[in-house]
DNA sequence: TCGCCCATGTAACCGGTTACATGATTCA
DNA sequence: TGAATCATGTAACCGGTTACATGGGCGA
């Protein structure tokens, strides 16, 4: 269901677009929030056409089909935003590693945490770059006076920073305990 | 793959357990990090037995099979924790709603944010209750001097608090803009 | 003309969810 | 004896990923 919504959202933002455009759009803008490859998008667009949520507005060169959203599609999108409770189950590999971490020796656990941390630093850099590039290009505002995608980007940035803080604290906590218990000086 | 790991982790913590126990264990302890129903767990245990990661230690009343982890299983778990990069794609319905929110009228957007907020408050309460109950029952410590699952719980709590903060700020931001633009007094 | 990008699709597979199905044990 | 819980399994389905397959247009 959410794939539909994401497609309807992008189509609203773009006005009209081909499956190819939407695939690229996924990579660029929605990527850190939702992912989908072309092999998922093309069949979904076909189904959505059958359901009357989008229409093939025109057919361009080399089989290119240009889709646009219909009033029914707009209604569906609006209904989902207003009415859908996001109950999506949280399945996180990072959290699972965190969960199981105490099964390891402290030294090993510290290594894992360091790796997680650098992973998060990488992601933070990515999101910050994205924000910078969005600020440069002045995307048109939407009704709420906030740019499309900005709220999600802000949320993502905060969450990554929180995770980083958590990793630092966990490292400190375990590091402190090992040096206390063993009476050994940290390297 | 991660289902295997979670099962191996629980088996390590429990010593030995039946599929039924593990199903309940999922509901109780790993739930906010990873979910799995019995219909997924039973076949997976069968496969893991075939792969030599667990063994049926004994068969109890009414067909109850008691599994325990093998040295190979322990090795697999350790290898995953130490070596696996958690690249699991972030697919979040909350983030998707956040992303698309600027497509709505400010008033409607505010409603959605309020609903998201109360959702998060609910989850926060849940996690805090879980932490309280864990503190009461003194679960045995593991090698790192941190209790099994505690790091993940801490991470979860921080993330929910961050999300809540985000929702509050987003509400303030949009609310401010609407009242400024319209010159109307907030209800 | 050769290679790259545009552009669309299909098929096999995998992990996960929901629903179907069955039977033993325990307790009121 | 009837209801609840213990206990295990299978099957249909759905969303998503990877890989396969094809062909048009454009620029060097």
Automatic annotation (TrEMBL), chains A, B:
Organism: Microbispora hainanensis
InterPro entries: Tscrpt_reg_PadR_C, Tscrpt_reg_PadR_N, WH-like_DNA-bd_sf, WH_DNA-bd_sf
Domain Transcription regulator PadR N-terminal positions: 7-78
One Pfam assignment: PadR
Domain of life: Bacteria
Stated name of the protein: PadR family transcriptional regulator
The Transcription regulator PadR C-terminal domain, residue ranges: 90-174
């Amino acid at each position: 269901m959410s794939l539909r919504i994401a497609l309807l959202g992008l189509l609203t933002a773009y006005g009209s677009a081909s499956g190819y455009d939407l695939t690229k759009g996924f990579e660029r803008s929605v990527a850190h929030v939702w992912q989908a490859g072309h092999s998922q998008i093309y069949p979904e667009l076909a189904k959505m056409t059958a359901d009357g949520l989008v229409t093939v507005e025109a057919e361009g060169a080399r089989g290119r089909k240009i889709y646009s959203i219909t009033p029914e599609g707009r209604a569906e999108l609006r209904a989902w935003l207003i009415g859908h409770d996001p109950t999506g189950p949280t399945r996180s590999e990072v959290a699972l590693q965190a969960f199981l971490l105490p099964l390891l020796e402290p030294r090993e656990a510290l290594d894992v945490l360091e790796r997680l941390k650098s992973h998060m630093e990488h992601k933070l850099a990515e999101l910050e770059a994205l924000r910078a590039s969005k600020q440069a290009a002045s995307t048109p505002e939407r009704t709420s006076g906030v740019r499309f995608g900005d709220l999600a980007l802000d949320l993502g940035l905060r969450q990554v920073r929180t995770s980083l803080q958590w990793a630092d604290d966990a490292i400190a906590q375990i590091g402190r305990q090992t040096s206390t218990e063993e009476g050994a000086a940290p390297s």
